[in-house]
Recover the amino acids of this structure.
DNA sequence: GTAATAGTGTCTTTAAGACACTATGTA
DNA sequence: TACATAGTGTCTTAAAGACACTATTAC
């Protein structure tokens, strides 16, 4: 058996005759945050056709030697000016040949979560081609579908298949809430249990039982009480907690 | 604003200067089945370097106009001779730049499930470069890691990063068992509750409570009793069930 | 009849939900 | 003081686990 390494070109042409019509690979980013009991996603305004003027998820092509998550973090830094620790995970790969009318572009969608005030500070340094749109999903529980987005109460439509990517992101974060401690990613380092419950209710789009929520969260040993209280709230202040393995933010 | 459509070449060269060094995109397939209380995966023997002679997951490049799931089904037909209805879902996209030493190949891994006897019939028509290897995973519950594979009790190592792809597949199917009716995908059209429980125990690699399992499965309304009994079993025969929405197999 | 597994009934345990009650800050 | 929300204690409910018991077929 011939074990002499082929050159990359030999390999590709022998294995993949369509080497010169390979798909492009991009990363699109669903950056979610929660503010005032609303789920919000970062969008950027498209400057070029197709869909020029429409809002879209931030994205970009993957470098030839760049890991997928590195591309996602590069886009996170470029479009949202977020550099430090940010929750990020791969979501799903969208590969419909017609999803981009110009060419075959396969998009490896990623989900990122960041707390609202940190995001606002970062976006202050951004051009005004970005916005935080409200995200609404009508479907409950385990079902799924596209997400609806609006700005100042007015519905907006997204470029390409981005409403489906956003829908997949909402489904993912709803599912993860049940078994993974991710709510704190959307809050400042110290927060009250009520604030965490608000985040859960916003994401799930339904009320959650206060007693059971407190019992479950505290029993899970994921939070650490600080002993300090919130201030200036006009009523009895709640105790502040931190996430236990404080690699957070 | 110029709204004249660019040609694809103009678009790609302006947007993606590295057009001529784009990654290749492949699909790798984790085809799982269960037989005699063992989880098994379809492997193919590599004929070419690197890793010539090693076992690997079946895979192939994605056509320029081919949807990702279509590529997965094409590979399913080519490597396992499976053509009809087969459970298939996208798993995860593996994009480490060094995962293939020859070139940048991004792999969109897919998970497929099929019942053992149907698979054996299909594989009868296959060359002997395929095998069904035993899959073992040591990590329990929600944790994860690479999978171990063995043939006739002897450990085998897989090509590329395929042990990690296989590990992700086992994690996925374990998670899905908790909320989705997928066990029946691994059984013939009619099966006993005990057989379904065996499948669950094999995948989860732990015993499951018989009473609770029966109650939960029957309450979920996913199964339909046939009224008929299994035969020739040497003891009291169990009733045969079918999956309710019998799009199955 | 015995062996072996199928299938049922019921008690215990665990976690969620309901709800009333007390606690403690601001105004 | 009133008010609003924080936080606790306990009862109810739902589902899982434990376990004993009956049922039915092969032999």
């Amino acid at each position: 058996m011939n074990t002499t390494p082929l050159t990359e070109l030999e390999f590709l042409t022998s294995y993949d005759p369509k080497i010169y019509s390979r798909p492009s690979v991009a990363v699109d980013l669903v950056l979610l945050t929660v503010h005032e009991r609303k789920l919000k996603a970062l969008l950027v305004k498209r400057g070029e056709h197709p869909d020029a003027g429409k809002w879209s998820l931030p994205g970009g092509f993957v470098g030839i030697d760049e890991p997928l998550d590195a591309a996602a973090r590069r886009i996170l830094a470029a479009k949202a000016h977020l550099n430090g620790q940010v929750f990020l995970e791969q979501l799903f790969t969208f590969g419909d040949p017609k999803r981009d009318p110009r060419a075959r572009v396969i998009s490896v969608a990623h989900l990122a979560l960041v707390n609202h005030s940190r995001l606002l500070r970062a976006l202050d340094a951004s051009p005004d081609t970005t916005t935080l749109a409200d995200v609404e999903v009508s479907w409950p529980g385990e079902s799924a579908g596209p997400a609806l987005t609006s700005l100042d109460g007015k519905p907006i439509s997204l470029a390409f298949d981005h409403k489906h990517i956003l829908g997949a992101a909402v489904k993912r974060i709803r599912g993860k809430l049940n078994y993974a401690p991710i709510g704190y990613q959307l809050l400042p380092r110290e927060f009250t249990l009520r604030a965490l419950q608000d985040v859960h209710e916003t994401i799930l789009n339904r009320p959650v039982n206060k007693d059971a929520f407190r019992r479950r969260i505290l029993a899970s040993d994921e939070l650490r009480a600080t002993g300090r209280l919130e201030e200036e709230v006009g009523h009895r202040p709640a105790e502040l907690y931190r996430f236990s393995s404080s690699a957070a933010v």
Notes: Residues 192-194, 210-211, 214, 233-239 of chain B lie near DNA strand C (CB under 10 Å from a C1'). Residues 1-5 of chain B have pLDDT under 50 and may be disordered. The interface with chain A takes residues 1-6, 8, 11-12, 15-16, 18-19, 21-25, 49-50, 52-53, 61-68, 90, 92-93, 95-97, 102-104, 106, 108, 142, 179 of chain B (CB under 8 Å). Chain B has six helices and eleven strands.
